[in-house]
């Protein structure tokens, strides 16, 4: 999720900005990246072929999540990256596994900062997911008590504001 957020801010039809011709006229795009995952056309076609998901669309959220998981699984196998190392997974995602192994990312300060942000967001999203799981696993009675205490807290907060 953190990679998708970094790549497209969860926009389904995201594309790289066009280059400019004579500083004014829109020119070509720098790459074929598109969709939630900003997947290149060639990498997306490889994913469709190897996953058997021929009808996958780069603008479909579930397909984009599956693509990123597929790519990260390959990066873990090829480059030996741990599943919890979102920073390194992002480097491999952005630069390709060959670029990651050649440490191309170390010469790009902006990419190092982006990867740091991906790691932070990965940890934040993980905490949010843990909170959702904890809430989901409560019994009906615990949910009732939790809801009642939230209502009491909300009423107290609104009184202190007024």
Structure write-up:
With 162 residues, the protein is mainly alpha-helical. It has one domain. Helices cover 64% and strands 2% of the residues. The protein has six helices and two strands, in the order H-E-E-H-H-H-H-H. It has helices at 2-8, 41-51, 61-79, 86-101, 109-136, 140-161; strands at residues 20-21, 25-26. It has a two-stranded antiparallel sheet. Helix 1 crosses helix 5 and helix 4 (86-101) runs antiparallel to helix 5.
Beta-strand fraction estimate: under 5%
**Helical segment tally?**
6
| Gyration radius from CA atoms, angstroms | 21 Å
Order of helices and strands: HEEHHHHH
Characterize the biggest β-sheet.
2 strands, antiparallel
Poorly predicted ranges: none
Looking across the biggest beta sheet, what order are the strands in?
1-2
Number of strands: 2
- Termini distance? 39 Å
Helix content: 55-70%
Q: How many domains, in number, for the residues? A: 1
- Rounded mean pLDDT is 90
Class computed from helices, strands and strand pairing? mainly alpha
Shape: globular
List the helices and strands and how they pair.
Blueprint: H1 2-8, E1 20-21, E2 25-26, H2 41-51, H3 61-79, H4 86-101, H5 109-136, H6 140-161
Antiparallel strand pairs: 1-2
